[in-house]
Design brief:
The structure holds two protein chains of two kinds.
Chain A (H helix, E strand, L loop, with lengths): L10 E7 L21 H19 L3 E9 L7 H14 L1 E12 L3 H13 L3 E7 L3 H6 L6 H14 L2 E8 L6 H14 L3 E6 L7 H7 L8 H17 L3 E4 L2 E3 L6 H7 L3 E5 L4 E6 L2 E7 L3 H11 L3 E6 L2 H12 L6 E2 H8 L9 H9 L3 E5 L4 E5 L1 H4 L2 H8 L2
Parallel strand pairs in A: 1-2, 1-9, 2-3, 3-4, 4-5, 5-6
Antiparallel strand pairs in A: 6-8, 7-8, 10-11, 11-12, 13-15, 14-15
Helix pairs in contact in A: 1-2, 1-10, 2-3, 3-5, 6-8
Chain B lengths: L8 E8 L5 H11 L17 H6 L6 E8 L5 E8 L7 H9 L3 E7 L6 H12 L3 E7 L8 H12 L7 E2 L8 H11 L12 E10 L3 E10 L2 E2 L3 E4 L5 E3 L2 E5 L3 E4 L1 E2 L4 E5 L13 E4 L18 E7 L5 H14 L4 E7 L3 E8 L2 H14 L4 E3 L3 E2 L1 E5 L4 E4 L11 E16 L3 H10 L3 E8 L2 E9 H5 L2 H8 L5 E11 L2 E8 L2 E2 L5 E4 H18 L7 E7 L2 E8 L15 H14 L3 E4 L2 E4 H9 L2
Parallel strand pairs in B: 1-3, 1-4, 4-5, 5-6
Antiparallel strand pairs in B: 2-3, 7-8, 7-16, 8-15, 9-14, 10-11, 10-16, 12-13, 12-15, 17-19, 17-20, 17-21, 18-19, 22-23, 22-24, 24-26, 24-27, 25-26, 28-29, 28-30, 28-31, 31-32, 33-34
The chains are: A alpha/beta, B alpha+beta.
């Protein structure tokens, strides 16, 4: 293994597989439904784009790999294996490299899990979304609660680490119903859960339906109560809210996602993938073409599907680091902040709002011998968007 | 047309209540005299502004020159000055009346005389006008021409035996009106050889021609190429064009005594054209100026603020253009902590205020916030000084005040007797003192003395709703009287919202303070921190409300690496803050104050 200068920060790798069998009514991610997917073509394009990016960056330490989508479990497992092998060859992988794959708990996909484990995936994130069949139908999911439980059993045998997603604060969901669903969920998984409140995103099927009054989300107060109960129930099972929507037993956090929230470098390949990369002149934001076929065509022609590669200003960096870092329970380390943005943490914040938010117990300083951290308290995280809007200069 | 002998000229205006048919009659007269072809006629030719047509009211005086071949074999020139019917535009009315020798009084034969008609008729009588009563809508089944004729004699006190019965809508007996004009109104007087004296009746800004001046020639002649002098400002201009409205602008060689027309003289300085000024010949000036108009005094003031702070200069520019066209309206720059930079504007009344606001939004495309209207108070300081106060924010500490006087009005309300009870209670609720109560048929006429302060505060709306729209209302300024007035400040997180402070009688202070606090609690969305809303007189809090902090505002999901999207959302949020005002640690959307002001 080569040694590295301080100026070569570690990277994480995100691989976007843009295809789904069907579009879920709540989802606004970059996902596309195709009758037939040219697996060979997209596999080759992803590998080529990775090689191009690695050539530009040079050898750097690799922290984690994440296959997201879309539905990456629809990818040929061989492609996963090839990309993992390429990444290990092109970068210096850290020991115990975390390699996560998102998968749907249908029986077909559960059947392919063994092949992904074989390919090198060591952490699985299942899109369970609910353990209630009526709710699964409402959410447009293709699996049943029974299939989800079966897929979790299979996954537990195959992978060292396991997480799944649930969507709550659904129309009409009561505190009691959610408590019981969450209790069940916490008996099925012991180290990590992503618990998202249902939000209505622009351009989704749900947006139109909500506008026509076909359903309504819980109001602000009900939604706050559901959120607070979630943290309480998770804590009783030993899972801490380490981020706004993510709960883990200490040490079992998603290292890949922590990289985003800690505002570290990451490469994003595949259609619509985003990246944050330190280059010679500073931190760059990169973005690939969103549409799968034009992306592949670009990669085939030039080696890369990049449409944007912009140098971020100091203010942009400071804003982004605050937006991400205050989502984390650990908050932001003042020294890291200054090193990453070239700006003192206090200089990026409105002093009057900072003072008021500290008084109101929305924010707290934690001062340890080696670091001074600013963190949003649970009560501050509950109002994080409004807080950031006022606080961040 | 310039050689018309004085004996063949008639200058007249039309006085009527809203909807009694003034503009329709004007249209018929124009049509009957063939000034416009049928194709060119749109309803209400003289009401140029969109607002005038939509609301069916006249705001600006307009003029048109008609030629009429009368039964006596002579062809007459008839100059019509259209006048506004609403009390707020009394100033416009006085200008129109000063340019004419007679008036048509149009009364709806099915409705009778209304409050607003009275003031204008009395003004015409004061101006020595010959008045010809016209009974309109006599074709309607509900018409009672005999009763209305009697009412004109009883209420107004002018003979109505030979009132002309017509239907402006169907054109019935328009000939009768034209004959009455020729036979009953006096011709103008004047000497064509005397030095020029022309009354500056109106002026406005035309996008193509620049400043246009409307004049009535009293003495002498005015022709193209003349050097004219504004007697008040002393400014001298060469006349590029003289003409008449027929009703389109038609250039003529010159204008003689008794005639009305326009002047275009490439005038750049708007301030030189004072309405009511006398225009004379620079080489052979008149020794004396004409008696001008009674100057207009604003009685209602409010602050106007652009919603977009960047529009401040545009607002200044628009106000100066409007002022050229409407000399009765006043403005001066002011600053509000809650609303930013704006103008304190004075109006002749509430309708005038509404019209100006609407013109600013329509003709100049401005989005504005108006603060609650205030009247002009007389403030006597303990040190002996007296000042006029029209912005509640300027009211000093009570220890510096000896006394405050407020303006009172004489209000005339006409209402069918079915609704009289609620109308009388409304007046006494508003501190009114009854002076007279009489009946004409089943309509009552109540005369009250009322503090104007109570009238600018939703009086019209209440009157309209309790009388189902049947009450008509008019007022004249009366005098000032000492009163127990206090300033109520509205505080958000201990900081005063200057735009919401108001002056009220002590007896009404607490209930109005409470209602504004309750309203704000409804209108201000929950914020990051809790908000205290208070109403206070000096340091004494008389009402309070609390808005709790918002309980949840966080996006559950932060998708993968798309931080750019989150940053863009933050930037959008910050952009939105330009519309917010800071009160301590909370920022409150301007729209909440706007809504609070709108509900007043």
């Amino acid at each position: 293994m080569r040694t590295h200068a301080q100026s070569e920060p570690s990277v994480a790798l995100y691989v976007h597989w843009p295809f789904c069998r069907s579009k879920c009514p709540y989802c606004d991610f970059n996902s596309h439904v195709r009758e037939r997917i040219d697996q060979t073509r997209f596999a080759a394009a992803l590998r080529r784009e990775l090689a191009t990016e690695a050539a530009a960056l040079g050898r750097r330490p690799l922290r984690s790999i994440f296959f997201g989508g879309g539905t990456p479990s629809l990818m040929d497992p061989q492609t996963t294996a090839d990309l993992i092998a390429d990444a290990r060859a092109l970068f210096d992988a850290e020991p115990n490299l975390e390699i996560t794959l998102e998968a749907n708990p249908t029986s077909v996909e559960a059947g392919a899990l063994a092949a992904f484990a074989q390919a090198g995936v060591n952490r699985i994130s299942l899109g369970v979304q609910s353990l209630d069949d009526a709710a699964l139908r409402f959410l447009g999911r293709e699996h049943s609660a029974t299939q989800a439980v079966a897929a979790l059993e299979t996954a537990r045998r195959l992978f060292g680490r396991l997480s799944f997603d649930l969507i709550y604060a659904r129309p009409g969901q009561t505190l009691a119903a959610w408590r019981s669903e969450l209790d069940t969920a916490l008996t099925l998984v012991s180290d990590h859960l992503s618990l998202y409140q249902l939000t209505i995103e622009p351009g989704t099927v749900f947006e139109g339906a909500a506008r026509r009054g076909l359903f309504a989300l819980p109001d602000e107060d009900a939604s706050a109560a559901l959120y607070e109960q979630t943290a309480t129930v998770a804590a009783r099972h030993g899972l801490a809210a380490y981020e706004v929507s993510n709960y883990a037993r200490p040490g079992c956090e998603s290292r890949h996602n922590l990289g985003y929230w800690r505002y570290q470098d990451y490469i994003g390949i595949g259609p619509g993938a985003h990246g944050r990369l330190t280059r010679a002149d500073g931190l760059h934001a990169t973005r690939r073409h969103r549409a799968p076929e034009p992306w592949a065509e670009r990669v085939e022609r030039t080696g890369s599907g990049t449409t944007h590669d912009d140098l971020l200003s100091q203010q942009d960096c400071a804003r982004e680091m605050l937006l991400m870092g205050l989502r984390l329970d650990e908050g932001i380390d003042g020294t890291h902040f200054a090193a990453r943005t070239g700006m003192a943490l206090e200089d990026a914040l409105d002093p009057a709002i900072l003072r008021a938010a500290l008084e109101e117990d929305y924010l707290a300083w934690s001062i340890a011998p080696a670091s001074t951290r600013l963190r949003a308290t649970p009560s501050g995280r509950l109002r994080l968007e409004a807080l950031l809007g006022a606080l961040v200069l | 047309m310039t050689d018309t002998p004085l004996s063949l000229i008639r200058n007249f205006s039309i006085i009527a209540h809203i909807d009694h048919g003034k503009s329709t009659l004007a249209d018929r007269l124009i049509q009957a005299c063939g000034a416009l072809t049928a194709r060119e006629m749109t309803n209400q030719v003289l009401d140029n502004m969109d607002i005038e047509r939509e609301r069916g009211i006249t705001i600006k005086a307009q003029t048109v020159r008609l030629t009429y071949p009368a039964k006596d074999g002579n062809t007459y020139v008839l100059n019509l000055m259209d006048t506004p019917g609403h009390v707020d535009f009394a100033y416009e009315v006085s200008r129109s009346l000063a340019a004419c020798e007679g008036s048509l009084l149009v009364v709806d034969a099915s409705q009778g005389v209304e409050a607003q008609t009275l003031a204008n008729v009395y003004q015409a009588i004061d101006a020595n006008h010959e008045i010809v009563p016209i009974l309109n809508k006599i074709d309607l089944p509900a018409a009672e021409p005999e009763r209305v004729r009697a009412q004109i004699e009883d209420v107004i006190g002018i003979p109505a035996d030979d009132a002309v019965g017509i239907s402006a809508k169907t054109g019935l007996n328009i000939e009768g009106v034209l004959e009455a004009l020729v036979t009953r109104l006096p011709p103008p007087t004047g000497d064509a050889t005397a030095p020029l004296q022309a009354l500056l009746v109106d002026s406005w800004y035309d996008a193509y021609l620049g400043v246009i001046i409307l004049v009535r020639i009293m003495q002498g002649r005015l022709k193209r190429g003349d050097k004219i002098r504004m007697m008040a400002s002393g400014a001298v201009y060469a006349v590029d064009q003289v003409g008449v409205f027929a009703p389109r602008m038609v250039p003529v060689d010159d204008l003689g005594p008794g005639e009305m027309g326009y002047i275009n003289a490439a005038i750049k300085t708007v301030a030189d054209c004072n309405v009511g000024d006398t225009i004379t010949d620079d080489r052979r000036p008149a020794t004396q100026a004409l008696a001008g108009f009674k100057p207009s005094i604003p009685v209602v003031w409010c602050g106007l603020y652009p919603i977009d702070a960047d529009d401040f200069e545009k607002l200044r520019d628009s106000l100066s253009k409007l002022r050229l066209n409407d000399a009765s309206f006043h403005y001066e720059a002011e600053t509000s902590a809650a609303l930013g930079f704006g103008f304190r504007c004075g109006f002749l009344g509430l309708l005038h205020l509404e019209i100006i606001q609407e013109r600013l939004s329509r003709e100049f495309n401005l989005d504005l916030i108006a603060t609650a209207p205030s009247v002009v108070y007389r403030l006597y300081r303990t040190n002996g000084g007296m000042e006029e106060l029209h912005n509640p924010a300027d009211m000093p500490d009570s220890s510096l005040i000896e006394k405050v006087e407020e303006p009172w009005i004489n209000a005339t309300i006409m209402v069918p007797d079915d609704y009289l009870g609620p109308v009388l209670s409304l007046c006494s609720e508003r501190r009114g003192i009854q002076k007279d109560l009489t009946y004409v048929g089943n309509r009552a006429m109540a005369v009250y003395r009322l503090p104007l302060n109570e009238v600018v505060f939703d009086f019209y709306d209440r009157l309209k709703s309790i009388s189902r729209g049947y009450a008509s209302f008019d007022y004249q300024m009366d005098d000032y009287q000492e009163s127990d007035l206090v300033r109520i400040s509205i505080l958000v997180n201990q900081e005063p919202v200057d735009a919401l402070s108001f002056i009220a009688h002590r007896s009404a202070a607490e209930s109005r303070g409470r209602s504004i606090c309750a309203k704000l609690k409804e209108l201000i969305p929950r914020q990051l921190f809790k908000i205290a809303i208070q109403a206070a007189i000096g340091s004494r809090v008389i009402a309070r409300e609390t808005i709790g902090a918002l309980s949840k505002d966080v996006t559950a999901k932060c998708y993968g690496g798309d931080i750019s999207r989150k940053r863009k959302l933050l930037e959008k949020q910050k952009e939105g803050k330009k519309r917010m005002r800071q009160f301590g640690k909370v920022e409150i959307p301007q729209s909440a104050f706007l809504a609070a002001l709108k509900m007043d």
